[in-house]
Amino acid sequence: MRLQIVFILMLFLQAWKPAVSQAAAPELPDSRGVLQRLADRAGEAKAKIKSFGETMFAYAGAYYEDHIQPVAGSYVEWASNLRSSLWEKVQTAIDNYMPPTE
């Protein structure tokens, strides 16, 4: 039984080998090395990520200008006015300070 299987496999391999050798080798459209192709793909991925980041930064800037800045601007102005008012009070107190006389 084993001998028959080995014989059949040998016949199959002999018939298959010429068929494989007659098939034309596939032409590679790009004969560059694997590392070069990987480097090219990495560069393309980097460009896509950079483009996506620039787009997201632009959307974030527009959102800030439309929604955050109008609200935050009034708080910044209020804090600035409060600081100025307190500083004026401190300056007035220093200018009007009279040391105690003994």
From TrEMBL:
Tagged with keyword Signal: yes
Signal peptide: 1-21
Keywords: Signal
Keyword Signal recorded: yes
Protein name: Apolipoprotein C-IV
